[in-house]
Design brief:
By secondary structure, the chain is mainly α. It is 41% helix and 0% strand. It has 3 helices and no strands. α1 packs across α2.
């Protein structure tokens, strides 16, 4: 098992370098490497129970991701909620009774 972990680590590092060393993509690289190693060990006739029990998909791995779709007409998204109102301040020098 330690040899598979080392293979996954090495492959994840290779993927990271191929993508230009992006920050914050380590989990996606690890999962891609895991899938590749699991597929190769299944092909060799070895049991890879974790790879068969759950199929891990990543949105960035699919070529047609809906998250990257542009809004129609080139419009940009705008937040729909307004900031909370600021409390009214008493005028300077006034006292509260």
């Amino acid at each position: 098992m330690a040899s598979n972990e080392e293979r996954i680590r090495q492959r994840a590092y290779e993927i990271w370098e191929q993508e230009g060393r992006p920050h914050g993509e380590d989990m996606r690289h690890w999962l891609l490497a895991f899938q590749e190693i699991a597929a190769s060990t299944e092909g060799d006739g070895q049991a890879a129970k974790k790879a068969r029990s759950k199929k891990v998909t990543t949105p960035a791995a699919s070529p047609k991701s809906k998250a990257k779709a542009k809004p129609a007409g080139g419009a940009q998204s705008v937040p729909t909620t307004a900031p909370p109102p600021q409390p009214a301040k008493a005028p300077r020098g006034a006292t509260k009774h």
